[in-house]
Amino acid sequence: MRISGLASGLDIDSMVKQLMKAERVPLDKLNQQKQLTEWKRDGYRQVSTKLVGFNDKLTNLNYSSSINAKKATVTGASNVLTANATGAASDSVLNINVGKLATASSVVSSGGTAGSKPSTTKISSIYGGNDTQITIGSTNISFTPDDTIDSLINKINSDKTAGVTAVYDASSGKISLTSKETGSKDITFSGDLLTNVFGLKQADVKKGDDASVTINGITTTQTSNRFTINGVEITLNGISPTGQSTQVEITQDVDKMVDTIKAFVDSYNETLALMNQKTSEERYRKFTPLTAEQKADMKDDEIKLWEEKAQSGMLKGDSILNKTISDMRSALISDVVLPNGQKLNITEFGITTGTYSENGKLVLDEKKLRAALEKNPEGASALFGQTDATATVSSNSKDGIFNRLKKITSVSLQSISDRAGTSRYSSDLTTAFLPKSEMGDQLRNLDDRIDAMNDRLTLIENRYYQQFTAMETAMNKYNSVSSSLTSMLS
């Protein structure tokens, strides 16, 4: 039991609080150290998520459809077909004549359920047999007496392996099956419900046709009206008028390539700017994390301004980020060696680094870039997209810019993950830290020390109260003896 100054008249609670304030200094320092570690880890996560996003961007930009973009220009009988050039297409001209479109096999029943309402008519009202399934191709589709005509049609259409589209017409009572694929593929079916109730007959199946197309003098057949030739995706829409043909010219899509390189420059500059800001940010060591007592004596605006200073410079001069910045800048300014031995540099395509004060920021001259792309699009594709499987971060002369940077960011992401426990794959700032990392171990150690310090402070506080309680007890006895003596003498 604690006695609070009844005999002495002292404010013992206040005195113990003042004594404990001094005792809590080591605990405050531990909590501040923990807060600084958490702030630093949060800073690493900011950089990590930015690098993951940059890495993903590089992957998307490195697709041939972006960095080696082609375009297809259709002339002549242009309504006959559409064309789309993929990254695999080469500069060429295709002269196309469409003789016949591909059609799908189909079969239409003779009817037998005219006037039925497909949404409410149950199978049991039109079929009294024992079968519980129909077969289309090699696919068995089960049904129950409580199924309606509509639900049966839905079962057929939703079964991907059946490979047909079913349609029911309530006014005529007819059902049709049409192959989902064009060409001369047959439709086979069986089942009492299909053959006897709906009147589908195998003999009535009309086989589809293959498309007949003449391309640069060569006549070919295609099972579909959509096919790819020489990296060009062709979609047939009609038959060529007599004496006419369609020309498809494949050329480099300079506009798309310009957009790709501009997107890269913007993403690179954003990523580099964040790392430069983190490594050069001023560190205000006098602004330590605030304790709960200090916050209680401050206004919200004062706390905000203080903590902005306290959190500043958490990654100032960080070795991982400095190395990443250095490697990225080296990767940009170094030549890329082509298989024929030719060397290319980004400066040839209108990309330079800014002034010294801009710390490696890329500056793009779009006019010069466009002119260089029109003159040497293949060179640009190699400069940025060339791949060397044997290349490393330090030995990468045959790797294109995108692949160089991907290797650098991957190494950096692994180093940051090892140190701070960040995800190497997530660009979400709320992603949880991994349990095992250098800083994770540091924080667990700090938590253990804080718990031990709290236990120690509890013991110290109890000891102070015990000492004051003993003093109060002694003073009570003294006062009692003094009162007795005074009474006797009087």
Describe the fold and architecture.
The chain is an alpha+beta fold. Among the domains are: 70-101 and 211-252, no CATH class; 104-204, Alpha-Beta Plaits. 46% of the residues lie in helices and 18% in strands. It has 14 helices and 18 strands. It has helices at 12-23, 25-61, 64-67, 123-126, 149-158, 192-197, 254-280, 292-296, 300-311, 319-333, 366-375, 377-385, 401-420, 438-489, and strands at 70-76, 81-85, 92-100, 104-108, 133-136, 139-142, 164-169, 174-182, 189-190, 211-215, 218-222, 226-229, 232-236, 246-252, 336-337, 343-344, 351-353, 362-364. A five-stranded antiparallel sheet has the order 1-14-3-10-11, with no helix packed on it. A hairpin with a 2-residue loop joins strand 10 (211-215) and strand 11. Helix 7 (254-280) packs across helix 11. It is flat, with a radius of gyration of 40 Å. The two termini are 36 Å apart. The mean pLDDT is 90.
